[in-house]
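Design job #97: recover the sequence.
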């Protein structure tokens, strides 16, 4: 490892030495197609929005296993730990940090092959994924209430007419290994093709439980299987069928009293998600007046999140008896149907293209929460007590929406677009159990009617340059806090609305070999929903509760910029920059007026620079450097912060016609950084409030091998 650490930074120097003195002129960059927009697929340059697209090559070279590996490439996208894999995302500083209590109510939409995994995105492994698209800003017309901050869309590779069979294997330290297979074949008799991708991944999770003497209590055990079938049913009709099976069977032992890599837990937890999903997408232009798109999707996801509430053991806490454990089980199912009719694109000045659609979503979630514990103080027995609580709940929500969009040409170089969506959500919740020393039950109902949309104007001021201005309105449904709450008046919270204004420029340079885009945005939030927490009993760590509240207002503004440059036929460079400023305004919590302050998990800057080298003889190298500013872990009055950090990933390999092999390192300088933080009391007998962090992954070194049989 020390040898690798010394040699890896010299990869780029070695590449420069081996490169020819006069590299041949590079070809222009390939066009990037965005499929997550409301209308038909669009070229990236034509989308009047701030969008980042990570293609298959970038995902394969910059990532190893999960979307977590590459999200640093996306400006103004952050995530909150507290789970074994990212579930909770923030775009432009807006998004959830946890959802241990409460009904599903995400701010960031998360789609995998048209299936809604918002709030439960652990299934986003990268094996055989062709593209990840991140649309920043409210997608009020596209997805409505689930996309106040934006949308992340993951697309797996589609079947092709060329038969293929390939295997992929990886081995690395920390007992990491994976094996995957991809098979693709046409079915000429049915004018179709199918594709199957299966991968198994395992790792010990980078932590060691010192008390149990085990190094697998935070381990990762992930199985992904995808099957896709594409049927060309007619000259103008195509049907895509996708099935996904994801079994994320991970441990969860990521916290320690001394904020180290060594846990002291005697009852480590788990973080699992077993998901089965399918989607069907029908696109037909058989009716010449318009194109019909029908998307149906269903998913069932069973998850368990548990943890050792005291993070310790009997020996550590002696002479006190201090032992707590919590577990949350969730069984969620979603069923959605989206029907759209769209006319042809406008061709001449004065033409207007139209789109109308209807959308329905049914979400059901059954929950079972258990919290047990005991505390015994030999010096002050009056503080002794036991905890044995459980709560069984059921949440049902029906969402209905009608939307439309118009697009037209004012001049051959000036385009306009306007969209509107009306949405109604009806939700019911019931629970029953024994909580805080008493039997309890509740029944709640909420109904929200919300409206959002967008207006944009685009101007092609040259053959290779486009500027746009856009105004959009997003919304997020209200709801209710489940389980234990501080006071009865905090049971419910109101919907949030967001007005977003942005101006962007997208341009190709150097005969198409260089592409840049820059967006400046300002978002004004009203009734902003704030996820906060409170510890009700200082001697009971499981009494730290989370609930959603409404601040009066807030704002988020900043800049996003990216660059892709094919320097020549051997060298390519890419970069991304996100600048962000945020504020809570007029936030009152109980009787306390809180100061205006930056929002949580909203770093002031994010930046990445990547360089790739490909030699004609097959040698290849890549370097990725990411920088992230410090950010607040939580809402005021908690002012604890992370530290800024820089991560460096390196790769060096060889690519032949049928096989390739790579030596790679992630976080090669072993930077220590935090992905989640809390500030509360967890150590007897005085339980002083302290900051605790969940560390990000340390340095890892490995090799990967790919072989294609044909």
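Job complete. Output follows.
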């Amino acid at each position: 490892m020390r040898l690798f650490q010394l040699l890896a930074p010299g990869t780029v120097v070695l590449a420069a030495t081996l490169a020819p003195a006069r590299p041949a002129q590079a070809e222009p960059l390939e066009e990037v197609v965005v499929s997550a927009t409301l209308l038909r697929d669009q070229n990236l340059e034509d989308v009047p929005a701030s969008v980042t697209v990570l293609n298959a090559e970038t995902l394969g070279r910059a990532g190893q296993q999960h979307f977590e590996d590459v999200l640093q490439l996306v400006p103004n996208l952050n995530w909150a730990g507290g789970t074994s894999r990212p579930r909770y995302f923030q775009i432009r500083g807006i998004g959830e940090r946890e959802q241990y209590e409460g009904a599903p109510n995400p701010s960031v939409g998360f789609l995998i092959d048209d299936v809604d995994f918002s709030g439960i995105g652990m299934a986003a492994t990268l094996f055989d994924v062709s593209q990840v698209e991140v649309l920043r800003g409210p997608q009020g017309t596209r997805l409505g209430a689930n996309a106040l901050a934006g949308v992340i869309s993951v697309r797996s590779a589609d079947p092709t007419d060329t038969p293929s069979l390939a295997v992929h294997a990886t081995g690395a330290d920390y007992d990491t290994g994976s094996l995957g297979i991809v098979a693709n074949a046409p079915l000429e008799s049915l004018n179709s093709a199918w594709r199957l991708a299966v991968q198994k991944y395992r790792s010990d999770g980078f932590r060691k439980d010192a008390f149990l003497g085990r190094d697998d209590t935070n381990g990762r055990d992930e199985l992904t299987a995808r099957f896709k079938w594409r049927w060309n049913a007619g000259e103008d009709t195509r049907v895509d069928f996708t099935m996904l099976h994801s079994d994320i069977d991970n441990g969860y032992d990521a916290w320690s009293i001394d904020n180290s890599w060594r846990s002291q837990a005697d009852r480590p937890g788990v973080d699992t998600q077993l998901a089965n999903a399918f989607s069907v997408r029908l696109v037909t232009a058989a009716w010449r007046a318009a194109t019909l798109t029908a998307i149906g999707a269903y998913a069932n996801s069973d998850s368990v999140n548990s943890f050792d509430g005291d993070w310790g053991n009997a020996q550590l806490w002696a002479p006190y008896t201090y032992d707590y454990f919590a577990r949350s089980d969730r069984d969620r199912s979603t069923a959605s149907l989206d029907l759209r009719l769209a006319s042809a694109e406008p061709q001449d000045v004065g033409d207007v293209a139209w789109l109308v659609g209807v959308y329905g979503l049914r979400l059901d979630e059954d929950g079972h929460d258990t919290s047990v514990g005991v505390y015994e103080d030999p010096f002050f027995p009056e503080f002794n007590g036991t905890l044995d609580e459980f709560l069984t709940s059921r949440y049902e929500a029906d969402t209905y929406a009608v939307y439309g969009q118009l697009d037209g040409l004012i001049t051959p170089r000036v385009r306009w677009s306007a969209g509107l969506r009306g949405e109604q959500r009806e939700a019911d919740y019931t629970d029953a159990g024994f909580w805080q020393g008493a039997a309890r039950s509740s029944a709640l109902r909420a109904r929200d009617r919300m409206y959002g949309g967008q207006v944009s104007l685009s101007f092609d001021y040259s053959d290779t340059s486009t500027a746009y201005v856009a105004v959009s309105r997003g919304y997020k449904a209200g709801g209710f806090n489940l389980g234990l709450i501080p006071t009865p008046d905090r049971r419910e919270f109101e919907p949030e609305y967001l007005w977003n204004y942005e101006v962007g420029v997208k341009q190709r340079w150097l005969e198409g070999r260089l592409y840049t885009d820059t967006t400046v945005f300002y978002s004004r939030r009203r009734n902003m929903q704030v996820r906060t927490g409170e510890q009700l009993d200082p001697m009971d760590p499981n009494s730290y509760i989370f609930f959603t509240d409404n601040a009066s207002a807030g704002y988020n503004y900043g800049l996003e910029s990216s660059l892709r440059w094919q320097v020549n036929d051997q060298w390519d460079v890419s970069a991304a920059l996100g600048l962000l400023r945020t504020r809570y305004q007029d936030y009152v919590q109980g009787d306390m007026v809180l100061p205006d302050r930056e929002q949580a998990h909203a770093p002031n800057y994010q930046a990445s620079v990547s360089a790739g080298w490909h030699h004609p003889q097959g040698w290849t190298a890549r370097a990725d450097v990411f920088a992230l500013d410090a950010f607040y872990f939580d809402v005021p009055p908690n002012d604890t912060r992370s530290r800024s950090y820089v991560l460096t990933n390196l790769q060096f390999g060889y690519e032949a016609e049928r096989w390739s092999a790579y030596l790679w390192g992630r976080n090669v300088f072993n930077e220590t950084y935090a992905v989640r933080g809390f500030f509360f009391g967890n150590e007897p007998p005085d339980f002083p409030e302290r900051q605790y962090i969940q560390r990000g992954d340390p340095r890892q070194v490995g090799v990967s091998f790919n072989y294609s049989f044909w």
